[in-house]
Amino acid sequence: MANEIKSKIILHWNCRGLVELPEVIRLHGSHIKEIYLKWNKLTTLPPWIMELFNVTNLYMYGNLIKQLPAELGRMKQLTVLDLSANKLEQIPCCIGNLRNLKCLFLNDNFIEKLPVELSQLSNLQILSVSGNQIVALPEWTGSLPKLKELYADNNRLKELPNRLTLAPELTMISVCSNRLTYLPLNGFLSSPFIGFDANEYLNYVSYPLLFQFLSQLRTTALDNRSCLAFGCFKTHYDTNVLSTNIKLYIEMKGLYENDTDVIIELPRQLLKIHEFHKNVTCSLWELALRKIYTERYKHTLDVFTSPLSVTILYSPLPKDTKLDFMLSTMNCTLYNLLTNGPVSVCVNSHCQQPIFTEAWIIIGISHHVKSMITIALCCSKSCASAFATHSSTFNKLHWYPIN
C-alpha cells in the first residue's frame, strides 16, 4: 500500500471494504491530489486528514458516514467534495471554510436543512442535494456569486428562494419530485433551464416565466402543457397542507373539455392582491419598498411576444449605498424583502416598477400553451388595465380569494 501511494498522485481506493482511512497515507501521501473512497464502510474521517494539503478532490460516495471531523474544514485547497449516499443528518458547519470549493455533492443523505455557513462558499459552481429531506432552500443560495448548477430533486420543497431569480450565473435548476405549489413569479436573470417534473401540486406559472420557458424551447406555442413539465399542471390541490399563503379559486368555465376549476397558491411574499379593475390605494409599506429598491437597483423586465423573448436587467446603481436598518423585527423584514428581490416586476413594459407585497393580478389562459393557467402581476390599477386591454395572448379568467 505504501508503494502504491508513493507511485501515484490519484488514489483509487473504491470498493476496498475500508472501515477507516489507513494511516499509511498520512506517512507517504502528502503529494496526493485526488482520493476516491467510494463504496467503502467508512463512518468518519481521521482528524489528520487536514495534513493531506495537496488533495483537491475527495470522493466518499456510498459509505456509512454520520459525522465528519471539524478538521475537514482546514482542507482549504479542496475544489470537489462528494459526500453523497452516506448517513449524514446534518452538514458540518466546517465545510463553509472550504473557500476554494467548486463542487459540493450531498445527495442521498438525511439532511433537513443547509447551514448558513455554506453561504461563504464564494467559488461554488455546483451544489447537489438531491434525495434528502429538505423542506426549504435558504435564500442565500441565490447569492452564491458563481453558482451555475443547483440540484435538489426528491426532497420536500414547497417553494424556491425568490433570490434565485437574481443569481447571475445559474444555467441549471433541477427540483423534480418535490412538493412545489408555485415557482417564483419573476423572470430569472440568467434564464436557467429549470427541471420541475413530478411536482403534482404545481398548477400555474407566471407570465414572464412562461415566456422564458417557451423561448428556451424555441417555440411560440405548445399543444400540450406537459411538454413543459411532466406530472405538473393538474387541477387538484393539496388540501392537507395548512398555509397562510393567499389561495385563489379560479373558474375555468369549461374552456377546455378536461379542465375543471382550480385552486392556486400565491407566493408567501404577497400579502395583498387586487383585481385589475379595482381602484384602491397602494399601501405605504409597499410604496416604501419600491422607493428604496429603485434608488439602489436597476431592475427591468421586458416580455416580447414577437419575436418571443424575455429581457431582464438587474444591477446596483452607481450611487448604491449599503442597506442600513435598525435590527427591529419590521426592519429585518424590510431588509430581507429588499435583499431577496421583488416578487415580480410590473408586466406593463412602460412601467417596470418592482412589486414586493401587493399587486394587481390578472389570471388567464395563454394562447401559447393550451389550458395553461398564467398569472401576470402589475403594480397599479392603471398598469393592470393597460395590460388587460392590450394583451392579445390572454383569455382572462374570473377568480376570487378563498382565505
Structural class determined from secondary elements: alpha/beta
Oligomer: single chain
Helix run count: 6
**Topology pattern, helix = H, strand = E:** HEHEEEEEEEEEHEEEHEEHEEEEHEE
Shape: elongated
Q: Which strand order do you get reading across the main beta sheet?
A: 1-2-3-4-5-6-7-8-9
The amount of beta strand, in percent, is: 15-25%
| Overall mean pLDDT | 92
Biggest β-sheet description: 9 strands, parallel
DSSP strand count: 21
Low-confidence stretches: none
Structure, explained:
With 403 residues, this protein is an alpha/beta fold. The chain has six helices and 21 strands. The radius of gyration is 24 Å and the shape is elongated.
Give the gist of this structure.
This protein has 403 residues and is an alpha/beta fold.
